[in-house]
Amino acid sequence: MSAALLARDVTVELGGRLVLEGVSFEVKQGEFAALCGPNGGGKTTLLRAALGLVPLAGGAIELLGAPAGSASAAVGYLPQAKPANASFPARVVDVIAAARRSSWPLFVGDEERERVRSVLARVGGERLLDAALRGLSGGELQRVFLARALASDPKLLLLDEPTAGVDEKGRGEFLELLDGIAARTDLAAVLVTHSAEAVRRLAERVVYLDGSVRAWGPPGEVLEREFARGSAFGGHDHETAAGARCESA
Amino acid sequence: MQGLVELVAAPLGQAFVQRALGAGLALGTAGALLGVFVVQRGLGLVADGLAHATFGGLALGLLLGATPDRAIAIALPFTVAVALGIQQLRRRTTLGGDVATGVFFAVSFAAGVLFLGLRAASAPPVNVEALLFGSLLAVSPESLLVTGVVSALVVALLLAIGPQLAYATFDPELARLSGVRVAALESLLLAVTALVVVVGVRTVGVVLVSAFVVIPAAAAQLVGRTLGAILALSLATSLFATVSGLLASYHLNVAPGATIILVLGAIFLVALTLRRR
What is the ipTM of this complex? Predict the structure, then answer.
């Protein structure tokens, strides 16, 4: 069985700067992995390279056995910044229907509405079906975009700091949702996060990235090693009581 | 009631008004539908820039000896080239679309002035005022046909690519991940905008044509909640303004293009008061 995500000696250069160098690791199918490291360590770049949004200067990435950027329907993506065009007349039902159709719906029929409703139900967001996107809170927006990422029944979910900018209550609720995803054996996930709580609660494996892979293994082992170095989350674990212990040395 | 019928029937009984109405409705349809995507992508100023670039293209055609009607054959590739130049400048540099448009706008217009000045003294005189402000009531059967064909092409194209173009407008990155060819669609949108603007310049002039693209869509965006509703409102706004503006200009004996745009402006003000919060 091929890996959900396989990175082999990946090198990425952006604007003349080497962002990733010789990065190799593997996420197995059904596994929930966390990608941690300091700001500028290349976590988001690695996800974007896996999706084919950033070119590789060297090495290779495979998603579900296919080269980077070619497994779109089987890969769900929850980007860090959303949505790109805030003035666009988007309702939640349109956003999720668009993900299913790969084009924007000018009209959503009853049957499609029900399908979208059932996708929203997976994240507890049915009541948002007809809401305008621009009126949603940060937590609601994340919920909708998680539903969007799940709309095509992916085998691999890539989540880029999904709780950034969300209040504490929203973060707690979102972690509950991710708990449900982590429990699934048919869905692998890679979560970029600065949150020690999210790592401990969700991840089966942690990749600590700082330009290259500094550590890779079970959460307890990696966190302990990086805490010992005083750099586990690059000083950005503001989400847990353990945050103080994660401050950079 | 009979008076109202006469107000409408009297002008419509005349062939030149019928042609003006046909050209106005065709241009209004293409501009209103295309405008929704142009405005949503923040390219409203680009439509204005392309209109001024068209002046350069038409002037080049006249310099090369074409008649004002035939100069469109030179203006079209010239304006499409400017549209693609603006897109490349936006994509490959850190300059914003407004700056890229501003550069091409000024250079193309200046080139047009130069081209007109370089024409031989023996060349037929050119009515620059007609180029700048158009002459909707003087639309020839040939121009009407060209405008109608272009409008039909734009509607057909938007029916085919509209949903993907809309997805790319909402979020280019997510659209690209879904297999939408975002860059190619943007090039196509700009090229089609150039086509509509070139055809529109012959009827409503350089200065006013972008209003047909921008104002109906802007008014509809203020009120509409979904993309489908915005497209319908933009089209209805444009068609209503064209018919009422043309009839009003006939009875008031004033310029039809300017009157249509003033009606569009009035509708925009109404939309502003009704806008969704």
Answer: 0.81
